[in-house]
Design goal:
This protein is α/β, with parallel strands linked by helices and about 450 residues long. A seven-stranded mixed β-sheet has the order 3-2-1-4-19-18-17, sandwiched between helices. Strands 8-9-7-6-13 form a five-stranded parallel β-sheet, covered by helices on one side. The two termini are about 35 Å apart. The longest helix is centred in the last third of the chain and has 16 residues, at about 415-430. Helix 6 packs across helix 7 (about 150-160). It has 16 helices and 19 strands. The chain binds NADP nicotinamide-adenine-dinucleotide phosphate. NADP nicotinamide-adenine-dinucleotide phosphate (NAP) binds near residues 147, 192, 266 and 366.
Length: about 450
Amino acid sequence: MRIAIIGSGPAGFYAAEALLKRSDTTVHVDMFDRLPTPYGLVRGGVAPDHQNIKAVTRVYEKTAARPTFRFMGNVCLGRDISVDDLRQHYHQIVYAVGNEADRRLGIPGEGMTRCTPASVFIGWYNGHPDYRQAQIDLSMPRVAVIGNGNVAVDIARILLRSPVELEKTDIAEHALEALRQSQVREVFILGRRGPEQAAFTPVELKELGEMEGVDPVVAPGELAGCNIPASEGSSQQEKNLKILQAFASRQPLAANKKLHVRFFVSPVEVMAGADGGVTGLVLEKNRLVTQPDGSVNVRGTGEKETLDVGMVLPAIGFAAKQIDGVPYDKKTLNIANEDGRVIDPVSRAVVPNEYVVGWARTGPQGLIGSHKPASAYVAGHMAADGAGLEGRELPEPDAILNLLKQRGVQAVSFGSWKKLEEVEVVRGARRGAPRDKITDVKAMLGLLQE
Ligand code: NAP
């Protein structure tokens, strides 16, 4: 059975692992990535000061070492190969393309200079080739981060953490240099609902209070009415409340940077100055409204305030990008699917032999480890649906490589990636970091041709 997996992030690697472990048939996996480097979110999304999370790539390396696995980096679906090419060369296809687009706020001023979506800011500090040239201006003292999820928390931490701590991480060199010059002293994390509805997880929230020279600030009034447990509590909500309570009772030091965690406010307009860049953010105060089904929503009270900030970073969730030939669901902003089987979004008929895993299937939810069972579940569908498919004759396994060569595409093997990695590790050692990433695709390909 020959299977193509598009995308080499966690969901793609966990799907490969489950497929390659099948005992009923021999599976050959070709994994494509549009970048010469593997690991998707782990390399381009996970915050640099969370190196322990990145250690998961050791598991993916074991999968990549299997003799029936090939990596083909620098091959972009929709540019270098088409869905039709894949259908010709493989029995089954798995889309593991993640969520590379940002959800939109839909408010006036969104998109102006210094109103920068999370994916751009994260890609910039993580050295993602798409965002290495992003114009990130850190000359202002105050910044707003919209959203109460772990991405908002990551962004706030990177903005405020001392560069001395960051230089020991794999943060991109250009970002480290910009953060060394940063004038940012205050960050506001803005939640539209209350502390009890916040999406961030306790470990990540607690870390905000552990940064050198940074005080978390929570107005005690914002916790009023919350059901704060006497002890630490066991649920995410209870733990978050205890941490927020501790923040609220902390005495901030005048010399420290401030990280304000605020609730019950929705952004309604991004204000622009004469240079066309952000000069403020208009917020509307909210009150909570419980729906008949028990879910908690917000309603604007009409009361407004303008936050004096020079940059706005919406971190309100992501969406899958549309790829030519891959059915897209405009409502969920993901690849159209039913339980991981790709479907036509209009007729809802199953597209045979095509599957989707990870965030492109479900939207941006769950920690990295949760993709292991989720991808294995879809691999189970593939085994059940694909009985006998391996009997269909396909072109030779190397035909896909020849096709790419004919088209002038320099596919990067896993072995070649390891060479790039060696270079990054040597460069990183100079500043005591695990690696210093190469951020330019041309430079990567050039190194491999030397
Ligand atoms: P998320 O957890 O879904 O949080 C999104 C936040 O944006 C929510 O607070 C949401 O509020 C808010 N929001 C959505 N639309 C909004 C709007 N129009 N106006 C104002 N606020 C709005 O998403 P995420 O932070 O992007 O994280 C994605 C996934 O990655 C999560 O599973 C997260 O745990 C994971 N992650 C984990 C780590 C880690 O482990 N360290 C780091 C980063 C990300 P409502 O709740 O009111 O909708």
